[in-house]
Amino acid sequence: MFLDSFQEVDQWMLFLSRNGVREFHLVNTNQRYELPSYVFSCLELRALTLDNCLFKPPLKFDGFFKLENLNLRDINFVASSVRTHINLPKLKSLTLTSCTNLCNFNIKATKLQILRVLFCPGAMLLRLLMHSQRILWVTVFIKSAIQDIVQVERINLTRILSNLPTVSIFNGCFLKLLIAERIPKWLPHPVNSLKRLNFFDLNFGDLDQLQGALCLLRNSPNLEKLRIDNVQRYDTRVDFKPLLRFVSFQEPQLNDSDAGPVLTYLESPDGLDQTLNLLKIVEIENIEGSRPELHFIKLLLAHSPSLEKFTIQPCGTSLSNQVFNIAFRKKEERFNIAKDVMQFPRVSQKVEMIFLDPEP
After folding, report:
1. Burial group, residue 235, by CB count within 10 angstroms (0-12, 13-18, 19+)
2. pTM over 0.90
3. Is residue 192 part of a domain?
4. 3-state SS of 46-64?
5. Residue 292 has what DSSP assignment?
6. pLDDT tens, residue by residue, 110-133
7. What is the DSSP letter of 334?
8. Is residue 56 part of a domain?
9. What is the CATH number of the domain that holds 93?
10. Cβ distance 67 to 90 under 8 Å?
């Protein structure tokens, strides 16, 4: 939507509010649009998508009682004199991307199954993990641990981790946050429900991120699949629905010469001192063949007796790499990665090692 005025939009919104609209998608490329009050009277809504809006519900607004899918991007949640409570009793999927002032709202969604919180400073919505018993999938990306720790300081992260759902996806900055919050080596309760764990932007040269990742691994006794996509550059405006392809603005990986503390930790008894009995599948993409990366792979192979398939894909000449002038590994260097990995001892005798060519 690109208009000089929002008058026509207001008229359409009024018309829809009077005619029982069930699905509404507003993509706004103008200045931020303040939703008129009658939008909050659309109580027949099942699906709602809003982009670049001011979200300021009336004081008497209780919630959308039939809403099942809510997708909000670049939304500013305007604070009122009291904290606003929003009841979404039938909500199954909630996605929030680059939203601000989320801490001004309490969202109650007891039937929530999918939660995505992407680059939202007000990560207080992580409380939904403690109050929604049906969550199956959670994705949390934050911009920096330093920025977001202020917003989550009143959240019991240990309790949240103990309630992770079946599928969980985190980026490296969230893992760094775990260490900043002094998450213990062993959680009070194991994360028994977690079966699939995805790490995006895991910087193997960052000791805090690596410690956060290993904390989740050692506390997930039923983990069956681990995926690590070491993409280093992404854009928060991409479509996160697939959650598989994006580029990031994180700092580059440390060189091996700077990785002393990481290697010391990985080689210590505290590196990975827990057998991953049920881990069957590991996928690691976009690795550079650094010593921390290879040692991490070595640890997984040595502690996963049920491992069936281990897939490795080195960095390639993707579009994002071309844009950011990243040096590409030569073919013989990629061969050296495979040669090193094949020499690592494996506790599983049936594991199939798969080495993929870099993506073009």
Report:
1. exposed
2. no
3. no
4. CEEEEEEEEECCCCCCCCC
5. H
6. 899 999 988 887 656 666 776 677
7. H
8. yes
9. 3.80.10
10. yes
